[in-house]
Amino acid sequence: MRKIECPQCQTLIDVNEALYKQVESENQNQFLAQQKALEKEMGEKRVQYETRLKNLVQKEEALKQQEKEREAGFEDAVKRASALALQDERAKIMEEARKNAFLEERKRVEWMQKELEEKSKQVQELHQKEAEIERLKREKNEMESELKAEHEKKLNDKLVLEREKIEKALHEKNELQLRQKEEQLERLRNELKNAHRKAELGSQQLQGEVQELAIEEFLIQKFPLDCIEEIKKGQRGGDCIQVVHTREFQNCGKIYYESKRTKEFQKAWVEKLKSGMREVGADVGVIVSEALPKEMERMGLFEGVWVCSFEEFKGLSAALREGVIQVSLAKRSQENKGDKMDLLYRYLTSPEFSMQVGAIIEAFEQLKADLESEKRAMARIWKSREKQIEKVFDSTIGMYGSIKGIAGNAIGPVKALELGYDGGLGD
Q1: Distance CA 229, CA 256 (A)
Q2: Where does the record place a coiled coil (predicted)?
Q3: How confident is the model over 29-42, as pLDDT tens digits?
Q4: Which among 286, 222, 296 is positioned nearest to 254, based on CA atoms?
Q5: Is the dihedral of CA 95, 101, 105, 111 positive or negative?
Q6: How far apart are CA 174 and CA 381, in angstroms?
Q7: Which CATH class is domain 205-349?
Q8: Which of 301, 424, 415, 298 has the alpha carbon at shortest distance from 362?
Q9: Is residue 244 a contact partner of residue 253, using CB atoms and an 8 Å limit?
Q10: Is 333 in contact with 347 (CB distance < 8 Å)?
Q11: Beta strand pairing status for 12-14 and 227-230?
Q12: Taking the model in full, what pTM does it have?
């Protein structure tokens, strides 16, 4: 569909509809003109037919009159002529008159037949034009339906745009208040970050003790059958020892843990941990550290001991414990067939065990990522609801202030809306 703009009034004109109306008007006018011309021509032909018929009647009467006159003129001759000669003459005259009348009538009938065929063709053409007009009407109705549907679509699009404009206007109206709230929240966040930073810088030893306690509490809760032995402060070595027990067997092995919360990893920790392992007879050593060796991007074996972060420790501890149990069971089934320490060391430092631990940690990290994603989604929902509640509360305060300004003391006080109230929305 094409539209052009009127140069006089700047109105948009549908070219297709204008052309359609012009063609329809021209066809209808042409049809009416042809119909009138045909009716006029048929009227004229009818008059001609009637005139010719009247002439034929007059000719016939004239022939009869001539015959009478001829009969009267030849009366004497007829009287004198024999009856046979008169009859022959009359017969010839009548025969000739009949032939002339028959030929003239046949010509008239042929001419009328020809005229009838021409009129039939014209009527057929008129029917074709009527069919064309009906087709144009159907096309017009279809175009009107399409235009109506397009108009409704444009109206819906316009309503959507208007709704978006209204929402944008409302958003801009409350933008200043939202920015003020965001600035307050940002200021509180900065203060909280500063407090965390001061706390982190305040006591490195306290930070380490917190992680040590977290490791011990996790092991106690996660593995209630095991014995978690804390290494007292001041003693040389790690922080705690996990003595692995099962329901069937006691003392399947020992896992030696040391907690570190410093910015850089020190290789001296490894030798120190190995020395402590030898003293207590531990089978596996683990360093739980925020900083990893430069050679490592994630947890793994480093010079014979496991190094991991606190989050990785949760999955690694279960894998190492299971490995210790499996080695102990193998050892019990093969008494006096090998050195226990050597068998345990070779298994726990094998690629197979490392791959198994990696798979366990990957599954654990995926679960953690899903949990963090759910926490972020809930945080967004809570943030949105918090803003909605603040918006409703601010609107209520504004409405209460307006009514209070009009009615004065006639409006009773609302404690939750009074200045200085800090009891929360639920009080």
Answers
A1: 10
A2: 46-205
A3: 887 888 788 788 88
A4: 286
A5: positive
A6: 19
A7: alpha beta
A8: 298
A9: yes
A10: no
A11: unpaired
A12: 0.37
